[in-house]
Amino acid sequence: MGWKLTSIPAPLSISLKAEFGFNEHHQNEAINYMRFARSKRIIRLKTIDSCFEDLKDSRLEETFTVDEVRDMLDGLQLVVRGEVETELINTAHTNVLLLRQLFSQAEKFYLRLQTDISELENRELLEQVAEFENTEFKNPNKTNQEISKPKLAPLNEGGVSELLNKEISRLQEENNKLKGRLRTLETQAMGALDEKTRAERALKDLQKVKGEQQMATHSQEITSLEDTVAALQEDYQKSLSVNAASQRDLQDNLVSAKHDLLRVQEQLSLAEKELDRKFQQTSAYRNMKEILTKKNEQIKDIRKRLSKYESDE
């Protein structure tokens, strides 16, 4: 697992040991963790060994069939699988707690640690860890040593510590500037909020006055329209009355005109009869009538003659 300091990219000017590139303090921390992991591993292996021993002591003195052997192996597999799974889960959770400690201590110094997961499967590094563990724990006396577990702290007044202090001072100064700017912005925001409140109040008053004026205007318009409608209704009623009177007059005049027409027609008929009578009494009418009578007789005589000729043929 590779760790990188991203807040303050400065080189470390501290003498390091050859095993992992750690200083003495960090190397002791690594040894402490390896001792802890080694003890947990030994305990879990002893538990697995005891599972096999229990099986050997309890049932291997008898003769078993294939099915019975298979059942025993299946049971042993479940037990061993459970122990291994428990150990793997516990190791993963333990590593998370270790990372939590490192991250918490790094954040106190405004550091951001980054991990490279691909390095966890680096065979070369894993072999170095195994070699280091074998070398470190080969001596039983050294294995039983108790190493203190102080938390991470600045190593000295120079190097990383000095850079961290400078960075902290810079961040504090920048934080103070941001706080001052924030107070200024808050003051401006409050002033703008007051202005907005006054503007909203003035707008509401203006809308209220405008609404009252509009109501008065609408009321006047409604009154004017009502007067106009009343006048139109009155004119309409008058027009209806006048039209009714005119219609009655027209009907009376029409009836009178019809009567006059009938009288005139009757008079004309009488006049025509009188003229016809008088015309028949004139000498010209009588002479014309005699001439027509003679002509009719001549025509009759001619028709008779013609009919005789036609019969002879």
UniProtKB/TrEMBL annotation:
Coiled coil: 161-312
A GO-annotated cellular component: cytoplasm
Keyword Transferase carried by entry: no
Pfam family, one: Leu_zip
Subcellular location: Cytoplasm
Keywords associated with the record: Coiled coil, Cytoplasm
Record keyword Transcription regulation present: no
Biological-process GO terms, alphabetical: negative regulation of protein localization to cilium
Domain of life according to the entry: Eukaryota
Assembly mode: Self-associates. Interacts with BBS9; the interaction mediates the association of LZTL1 with the BBsome complex and regulates BBSome ciliary trafficking.
Family the UniProt entry places it in: Belongs to the LZTFL1 family.
Functional summary from the UniProt entry: Regulates ciliary localization of the BBSome complex. Together with the BBSome complex, controls SMO ciliary trafficking and contributes to the sonic hedgehog (SHH) pathway regulation. May play a role in neurite outgrowth. May have tumor suppressor function.
Official protein name in the record: Leucine zipper transcription factor-like protein 1
Name of the gene encoding the protein in the UniProt record: LOC112215704
